[in-house]
Design a protein that fits this description.
Layout lengths: L2 H9 L19 H6 L35 E7 L2 H12 L5 H15 L8 E4 L4 H7 L3 H13 L7 E3 L11 H11 E3 L5 E6 L2 E2 L3 H12 L2 E11 L2
Parallel strand pairs: 1-7, 2-5, 5-7, 6-7
Antiparallel strand pairs: 3-4
Helix pairs in contact: 4-6, 7-8
Bound molecules: zinc ion (2 copies).
Protein backbone atom coordinates (compact mmCIF):
# COMPACT_ATOMS: atom_id res chain seq x y z
CA UNK A 1 0.00 0.00 0.00
CA UNK A 2 1.38 3.38 -0.95
CA UNK A 3 1.97 6.06 1.62
CA UNK A 4 -0.79 8.22 0.18
CA UNK A 5 -3.29 5.37 0.59
CA UNK A 6 -2.43 5.15 4.28
CA UNK A 7 -2.78 8.86 4.53
CA UNK A 8 -6.19 8.83 2.84
CA UNK A 9 -7.29 5.89 4.97
CA UNK A 10 -6.64 7.96 8.09
CA UNK A 11 -8.45 10.94 6.64
CA UNK A 12 -11.37 8.90 5.36
CA UNK A 13 -11.86 5.96 7.70
CA UNK A 14 -14.14 3.35 6.21
CA UNK A 15 -16.75 1.40 8.03
CA UNK A 16 -17.10 -1.98 6.45
CA UNK A 17 -20.66 -1.65 5.32
CA UNK A 18 -22.07 -0.50 1.99
CA UNK A 19 -23.18 3.13 2.27
CA UNK A 20 -26.20 2.44 0.10
CA UNK A 21 -27.70 -0.80 1.43
CA UNK A 22 -25.89 -1.24 4.75
CA UNK A 23 -24.71 -4.78 3.91
CA UNK A 24 -21.21 -5.88 4.83
CA UNK A 25 -18.73 -4.88 2.18
CA UNK A 26 -14.98 -4.49 1.74
CA UNK A 27 -15.58 -1.13 0.13
CA UNK A 28 -17.95 1.77 0.50
CA UNK A 29 -20.18 0.25 -2.18
CA UNK A 30 -21.06 -3.44 -2.32
CA UNK A 31 -20.96 -5.22 -5.68
CA UNK A 32 -24.76 -5.29 -5.99
CA UNK A 33 -25.13 -1.53 -5.44
CA UNK A 34 -22.19 -0.85 -7.73
CA UNK A 35 -23.94 -2.87 -10.41
CA UNK A 36 -27.17 -0.94 -9.84
CA UNK A 37 -25.73 2.50 -10.52
CA UNK A 38 -27.25 3.86 -13.70
CA UNK A 39 -24.46 5.23 -15.87
CA UNK A 40 -25.02 7.71 -18.68
CA UNK A 41 -24.05 5.66 -21.70
CA UNK A 42 -24.48 5.94 -25.45
CA UNK A 43 -25.44 9.34 -26.85
CA UNK A 44 -25.28 12.09 -24.25
CA UNK A 45 -25.98 15.83 -24.36
CA UNK A 46 -22.75 17.74 -24.93
CA UNK A 47 -23.55 20.26 -22.17
CA UNK A 48 -25.10 18.29 -19.29
CA UNK A 49 -24.26 14.68 -20.05
CA UNK A 50 -27.87 13.43 -19.97
CA UNK A 51 -28.62 10.49 -22.21
CA UNK A 52 -30.37 11.55 -25.40
CA UNK A 53 -31.94 9.88 -28.37
CA UNK A 54 -29.71 9.97 -31.42
CA UNK A 55 -32.29 12.10 -33.21
CA UNK A 56 -31.82 14.86 -30.61
CA UNK A 57 -28.40 15.44 -32.13
CA UNK A 58 -26.01 16.80 -29.56
CA UNK A 59 -28.03 18.90 -27.14
CA UNK A 60 -30.91 17.83 -24.88
CA UNK A 61 -34.09 19.89 -24.53
CA UNK A 62 -32.93 21.18 -21.10
CA UNK A 63 -29.84 22.75 -22.65
CA UNK A 64 -31.28 23.90 -25.95
CA UNK A 65 -31.17 27.69 -26.36
CA UNK A 66 -28.98 28.30 -23.29
CA UNK A 67 -25.63 29.93 -23.89
CA UNK A 68 -22.96 27.79 -22.28
CA UNK A 69 -19.54 29.16 -21.43
CA UNK A 70 -17.89 25.77 -21.16
CA UNK A 71 -17.02 23.38 -23.95
CA UNK A 72 -18.37 20.07 -22.72
CA UNK A 73 -20.27 18.69 -19.77
CA UNK A 74 -20.08 15.07 -18.67
CA UNK A 75 -22.02 13.42 -15.89
CA UNK A 76 -21.26 9.88 -14.77
CA UNK A 77 -24.69 8.70 -13.59
CA UNK A 78 -28.39 9.44 -13.73
CA UNK A 79 -29.60 11.21 -10.57
CA UNK A 80 -31.76 8.38 -9.24
CA UNK A 81 -32.34 7.04 -5.71
CA UNK A 82 -28.92 5.39 -5.54
CA UNK A 83 -26.76 8.28 -6.71
CA UNK A 84 -28.90 10.63 -4.62
CA UNK A 85 -28.23 8.54 -1.50
CA UNK A 86 -24.53 8.39 -2.30
CA UNK A 87 -24.22 12.16 -2.66
CA UNK A 88 -26.42 12.76 0.37
CA UNK A 89 -24.09 10.61 2.51
CA UNK A 90 -21.08 12.49 1.18
CA UNK A 91 -22.59 15.92 1.84
CA UNK A 92 -24.67 15.53 4.97
CA UNK A 93 -23.44 12.44 6.81
CA UNK A 94 -19.76 13.31 6.87
CA UNK A 95 -18.87 10.23 4.81
CA UNK A 96 -16.01 12.02 3.12
CA UNK A 97 -14.39 8.83 1.86
CA UNK A 98 -17.19 8.53 -0.74
CA UNK A 99 -15.37 11.30 -2.65
CA UNK A 100 -12.65 8.76 -3.46
CA UNK A 101 -15.13 6.41 -5.16
CA UNK A 102 -16.73 9.30 -7.02
CA UNK A 103 -13.36 10.58 -8.24
CA UNK A 104 -12.46 7.13 -9.56
CA UNK A 105 -15.74 6.91 -11.48
CA UNK A 106 -15.26 10.43 -12.85
CA UNK A 107 -11.74 9.88 -14.08
CA UNK A 108 -12.67 6.56 -15.65
CA UNK A 109 -15.63 8.25 -17.35
CA UNK A 110 -13.48 11.06 -18.78
CA UNK A 111 -10.82 8.63 -20.01
CA UNK A 112 -13.46 6.51 -21.79
CA UNK A 113 -15.15 9.56 -23.37
CA UNK A 114 -14.42 10.93 -26.84
CA UNK A 115 -12.71 13.98 -25.31
CA UNK A 116 -9.11 14.14 -26.44
CA UNK A 117 -7.73 17.16 -24.63
CA UNK A 118 -4.62 17.60 -22.52
CA UNK A 119 -5.88 19.14 -19.32
CA UNK A 120 -3.76 21.42 -17.16
CA UNK A 121 -5.68 21.96 -13.97
CA UNK A 122 -8.66 20.80 -11.88
CA UNK A 123 -10.94 23.43 -10.34
CA UNK A 124 -13.64 22.71 -7.73
CA UNK A 125 -16.87 24.73 -7.63
CA UNK A 126 -16.63 26.67 -4.37
CA UNK A 127 -19.23 26.34 -1.64
CA UNK A 128 -21.04 29.22 0.03
CA UNK A 129 -18.95 30.39 2.99
CA UNK A 130 -21.81 29.76 5.42
CA UNK A 131 -22.34 26.27 4.08
CA UNK A 132 -18.62 25.58 4.26
CA UNK A 133 -18.59 26.65 7.90
CA UNK A 134 -21.55 24.47 8.85
CA UNK A 135 -20.44 21.41 6.86
CA UNK A 136 -16.74 21.81 7.49
CA UNK A 137 -15.78 20.74 3.97
CA UNK A 138 -16.59 21.25 0.33
CA UNK A 139 -17.50 17.96 -1.33
CA UNK A 140 -16.28 19.21 -4.74
CA UNK A 141 -12.86 19.94 -3.20
CA UNK A 142 -12.67 16.47 -1.67
CA UNK A 143 -13.46 14.92 -5.05
CA UNK A 144 -10.79 17.15 -6.65
CA UNK A 145 -8.16 16.01 -4.14
CA UNK A 146 -8.67 12.42 -5.24
CA UNK A 147 -8.93 13.34 -8.92
CA UNK A 148 -5.63 15.18 -8.58
CA UNK A 149 -3.95 12.21 -6.92
CA UNK A 150 -5.31 9.78 -9.52
CA UNK A 151 -4.56 11.94 -12.57
CA UNK A 152 -1.45 13.83 -11.47
CA UNK A 153 -3.08 17.16 -12.41
CA UNK A 154 -2.75 20.10 -10.01
CA UNK A 155 -5.76 21.70 -8.30
CA UNK A 156 -6.52 25.40 -8.37
CA UNK A 157 -8.89 26.78 -5.74
CA UNK A 158 -8.82 30.20 -7.40
CA UNK A 159 -12.60 30.38 -7.79
CA UNK A 160 -14.27 32.01 -4.81
CA UNK A 161 -17.81 32.83 -3.76
CA UNK A 162 -18.31 36.49 -3.15
CA UNK A 163 -21.60 36.44 -1.29
CA UNK A 164 -24.57 34.27 -0.52
CA UNK A 165 -26.76 34.21 -3.60
CA UNK A 166 -30.47 34.81 -3.48
CA UNK A 167 -32.84 31.90 -4.23
CA UNK A 168 -32.62 31.27 -7.95
CA UNK A 169 -35.63 29.07 -8.59
CA UNK A 170 -37.92 31.87 -9.76
CA UNK A 171 -35.39 33.39 -12.16
CA UNK A 172 -34.95 32.60 -15.84
CA UNK A 173 -31.70 31.01 -17.01
CA UNK A 174 -30.38 34.39 -18.18
CA UNK A 175 -31.30 36.15 -14.92
CA UNK A 176 -29.68 33.35 -12.95
CA UNK A 177 -26.48 33.73 -14.90
CA UNK A 178 -26.28 37.45 -14.11
CA UNK A 179 -26.87 36.90 -10.36
CA UNK A 180 -24.48 33.97 -10.20
CA UNK A 181 -21.82 35.60 -12.32
CA UNK A 182 -21.56 38.34 -9.70
CA UNK A 183 -21.24 35.67 -7.00
CA UNK A 184 -17.95 34.26 -8.25
CA UNK A 185 -14.53 35.79 -8.52
CA UNK A 186 -10.99 34.60 -9.05
CA UNK A 187 -8.32 35.00 -6.39
CA UNK A 188 -5.65 34.27 -9.01
CA UNK A 189 -5.48 33.70 -12.75
CA UNK A 190 -6.29 30.23 -14.07
CA UNK A 191 -5.04 29.41 -17.54
CA UNK A 192 -4.93 26.37 -19.75
CA UNK A 193 -7.47 23.59 -20.17
CA UNK A 194 -9.62 23.09 -17.12
CA UNK A 195 -11.66 20.30 -15.58
CA UNK A 196 -14.35 22.01 -13.49
CA UNK A 197 -15.77 19.70 -10.83
CA UNK A 198 -19.02 19.53 -8.90
CA UNK A 199 -21.04 16.69 -7.40
CA UNK A 200 -24.29 17.23 -9.30
CA UNK A 201 -25.60 18.94 -12.43
CA UNK A 202 -29.12 20.32 -12.00
CA UNK A 203 -29.76 23.42 -14.13
CA UNK A 204 -26.04 23.96 -14.71
CA UNK A 205 -26.38 27.67 -13.86
CA UNK A 206 -23.66 27.64 -11.19
CA UNK A 207 -21.25 25.70 -13.38
CA UNK A 208 -22.02 28.00 -16.29
CA UNK A 209 -21.36 31.12 -14.18
CA UNK A 210 -18.06 29.65 -12.93
CA UNK A 211 -17.08 28.87 -16.52
CA UNK A 212 -17.84 32.43 -17.61
CA UNK A 213 -15.49 33.79 -14.93
CA UNK A 214 -12.80 31.27 -15.88
CA UNK A 215 -13.08 32.02 -19.61
CA UNK A 216 -12.86 35.75 -18.96
CA UNK A 217 -9.64 35.11 -17.07
CA UNK A 218 -8.15 33.32 -20.06
CA UNK A 219 -9.11 29.67 -19.62
CA UNK A 220 -8.82 27.41 -22.64
CA UNK A 221 -11.06 24.37 -22.97
CA UNK A 222 -13.40 23.80 -20.02
CA UNK A 223 -14.77 20.36 -19.31
CA UNK A 224 -17.39 20.06 -16.61
CA UNK A 225 -17.60 16.78 -14.79
CA UNK A 226 -20.30 15.92 -12.27
CA UNK A 227 -21.25 12.59 -10.70
CA UNK A 228 -24.97 12.81 -11.40
CA UNK A 229 -27.28 14.77 -13.66
CA UNK A 230 -30.85 15.60 -12.54
CA UNK A 231 -34.04 14.45 -14.20
ZN1 LIG B 1 -24.89 -2.16 -1.22
ZN1 LIG C 1 -28.27 18.87 -21.78
Amino acid sequence: MKLIDNFLEVLYPRDLTCVLCGDESDHELCDICKGSLQFNIGSVCRFCGRMIMKSDYEVCHHCKGIKRYYDRGLSVTVYDELSKKLLFNLKYHDKRYISHTIAKYMLDYIVRSDIDIDFDVIVPVPLHTERYKSRGYNQAELICNHLSYLSGLPISKALERRKHTKPLNKLTADERLVVLHEAFELSSKVEGNIILVDDIFTTGSTLNACSKVLKESGAGYILIITFAVGE
